[in-house]
Amino acid sequence: MVTNPVHGLPFIPGASFTDCTKTAFHRSQTLGYRNGYAVARRPTVGIGGQRLQVNELSQAELDELASKAPTLTYGQPKQAPPAYFVPAHVAFDKKVLRFDAYFQEDIPVSAEEHYRIRQVTIYYYLEDDSMSIVEPIVENSGIPQGKLIKRQRLPKNSVGDHYHWKDLNRGINITIYGKTFRIVDCDRFTKDFLESQGIELNPPEKMALDPYTELRKQPVRKYVTPSDFDQLKQFLTFDKQVLRFYAIWDDTDSMFGECRNYIIHYYLMDDTVEIREVHERNDGRDPFPLLVNRQRMPKVLVDNAKNFPQCVLEISDQEVLEWYTAKDFIVGKPLTILGRTFFIYDCDPFTRQYYKEKFGISDLPPIDISKHEPPPVKQELPPYNGYGLIEDSAQNCFVLIPKPPKKDVIKMLLNDNKVLRYLAALESPIPEDKERRFIFSYFLATDMISIFEPPVRNSGIIGGKYLGRTKVVKPLSSVDDPDYYGPGDFYIGAVIEVFGHRFIILDTDEYVLKYMESNAAQYSPEALASIQSRVQKQEAPAPAPENMQAKPDLSVQGMEALISAIKTHLKDHPCKDGIRDALQAYDKEASGYMDKEVFFKICETLSVPLDDSLVKELIEMCCHGEDKIDYYNFLRAFSD
């Protein structure tokens, strides 16, 4: 047994050694779980299972250590040295807060100005909390400016308090010696100092301007020397001579605007203008004769100052640079008078003669102002998106709230429940599709087509509805003006292309033959010839081979004999009334087939004698598969 060579040595500095024979170095687990929660726990052993050196003390020893004063061991603590004293006149030497402000001074004895804005600068000295107010000197102001208040501590109120830098901020009013100063801004040092002391500054304001000072900055008004024109001579020469113009004011571009007629009178005796409104009978307007009273019309105004009163009784020559004269009124040109644009389209004979003698203008033809109706805009439909019928999609372009397209009600009433049925085959290169047969149903009331594929047992193809009722577009027709298939396109041998699939018409029912005979004008000679050849083939017996004798179709002959027997047997039975409508109402696609379960329910409702042996045999012959029945042949036994 190998013992630890260092076991028993005292644990003192210089006498501790690493155990070279130790082989376990794992650490003990410090994480545990209690009631499903992870809980940390204190390790009881050290690395490799080594015992921990724990010095356990009793509660009395712990209390003694807690109440033991450190001064008995280390002595009394020394006091910290006092902070270095810096006087205020040294710490804040040459540090001044600067604020921009202004105050308003009333001027009661001046006719040119009622108040005056005086801009000042407020200085606050941090070393002794003193303040001074200085007004910048303006040359030739006539006001004693400069230092308004010398540097001193300014009283804040009657109690004896003085203004402190904490009382100053942007956007406030302060009252000093009876005058109210408005502080609008400060410099960068002042802003940084106040924000460093925790004061939130208000946003800066614009400095108010003195209106009289701004008025003096405007250029001097230029006066025009009065002319030596003799106005009395003008009055005596052109007395009772008036130029008459016919004008319109077209305001149709604005909301609820219209085109109105006016007569403009220009008085040559004093160059005044008068505008009269032309009223018509029952125009719905108050009969005010004058739109603009007789006065001189300004053409170019002077740019007046901001404080110039805009509401005046009369406009003098000082506010107008140019007036309207007779040469400004020309037929065929627009004219803007007091903000309203008039178009002069004609004048009277005296005016034409005056312009010819005065200005040499001899050609003043009247202008036709009658508005011609614009040509109707052809409504173009957007490209067809391929969803639904184009008639339904086009309704969204005609009205805001689309309405269903109008239907030919007369056609729907005349052709109600009239369906043309055809037998067709699918033209496909796939061998499995060559034996598939389809029943086309053409509804004469709506010109819609439905396709039904009779289910064939063990064919691997699920029969049933192949295409619901819809209008089918011919392959070469345009998208904007589609050409749909009509009854004249369906005949034996015709090729019908339905959404990329080509079908060949093989046969028709007897109703189609009767419809084509009664409506021969709708069909082409080729279609009528195909029907005639079919009828001739049905009437002529098929030639039998020489070595064989033709055998009759026993199943067809048996069904015809059975139908004749049932007609005789159920001649007076009440079930014959309404059975056709009931069965065709369920078969909305007019496929000729329906479920057996629904068929029997309808027959029981109409009291059809299903227990009769002849009816049972006919139902067995009409069965098509396990769950379908051909009710067309069944209805032949119940129709006259």
Automatic annotation (TrEMBL):
Keywords: Cell projection, Cilium, Cytoplasm, Cytoskeleton, Flagellum, Repeat. Residues 574-609 form the EF-hand domain. Pfam families: DM10_dom (PF06565). One of its GO terms (cellular component) is sperm flagellum. GO terms for biological process: cerebral cortex cell migration; flagellated sperm motility; mitotic cytokinesis; mitotic spindle organization; regulation of cell division. It comes from the Eukaryota. InterPro entries: DM10_dom (IPR006602), EF-hand-dom_pair (IPR011992), EF_hand_dom (IPR002048), EFHC1/EFHC2/EFHB (IPR040193). Its main location: cytoplasm. It is found in: Cytoplasm, Cytoskeleton, Flagellum axoneme; Cytoplasm, Cytoskeleton, Microtubule organizing center, Centrosome; Cytoplasm, Cytoskeleton, Spindle pole. The keyword Cytoplasm applies. Residues 93-198, 239-359, 416-520 form the DM10 domain. SMART domains: DM10. One of its GO terms (molecular function) is calcium ion binding. Microtubule inner protein component of sperm flagellar doublet microtubules. Interacts with the C-terminus of CACNA1E. Interacts with alpha-tubulin. PANTHER family: EF-HAND DOMAIN C-TERMINAL CONTAINING PROTEIN, EF-HAND DOMAIN-CONTAINING PROTEIN 1. This is EF-hand domain-containing protein 1. The lineage of its organism: Eukaryota, Metazoa, Chordata, Craniata, Vertebrata.
